[in-house]
Amino acid sequence: MAFHPVEGRVPASLCDIAETRVEMVSRITCQVHDGAHVTVVRLAGTLDMISMREVYAHLERCLARQPDALVVDLAELAVHDQLAVSVFAAAARHAADWPAVPLVLCAPHPEAAALLAGCRELVADACARWNLPDAVGPASVVLSELVGNVVRHAGTPMQVTVTLRRPWLHLAVVDGAAARPGPAGQRDEGGRGLLLVRELADRWGSAPAGDGKAVWATLPAN
Question: Which residues, in sequence order, are bridge partners of residue 165?
Answer without folding.
Answer: 168
